[in-house]
Amino acid sequence: MHTDTYFPTPSYVNQTVDDCPGYTPATYHGNAAINALTDCTGSFTYMGYVLFNDGKPFDTGRCAAACTAQSNYNRAYPPSDGSLPLSCNFFNTYILNNGSVPMGQYCSLYTQTWGARFATNNGQVSFFVFVRM
Asked: Are 5 and 123 in contact (CB under 8 A)?
């Protein structure tokens, strides 16, 4: 995949999505994804990603479920060093493309919310939706 490739949002892309219970309404930020790894204390906030490439329609609810499941797993299996388990509080979702071929729905999971000013990654994607708890 080319990280320097930019694909404009096609006119047929729906820029609204259904709300996810337990999360704030989604915010559309055009062709940019969140690009933030650490918070003001230098702690990593990125928890990983989930890629849905099963051909099912785009659904923010899948990312919400993945975010919640990650939090539940972390609480059930806390760190052995006694630190607090990480909780997923925000996700960023979009269609990941390889050139013009959609590869699937990508869900980035974070421990904290990130605003529009962090939506600076505009490589290899068609559109983005941001949702937080």
From this structure: yes
Helix, strand, coil share (%) of the chain residues, nearest 5: 15, 30, 55
Which residue range(s) make up the domain with 46?
27-132
Number of domains, the chain: 1
Alpha carbon distance 133, 25 (integer Å) = 9
Does residue 10 sit within a domain? Answer: no
Q: What gap in Å lies between CA 93 and CA 90, rounded to an integer?
A: 10
Q: Is residue 3 part of a domain?
A: no
Q: Is residue 15 part of a domain?
A: no
Torsion of CA 75, 82, 89, 93, to 10 degrees: -80
Q: Please write the tens of the pLDDT for every residue from 62-81.
A: 999 999 999 999 999 999 99
Say what the pTM is.
0.78
Within a domain: residue 5?
Answer: no
Contact between 67 and 109 (Cβ < 8 Å): yes
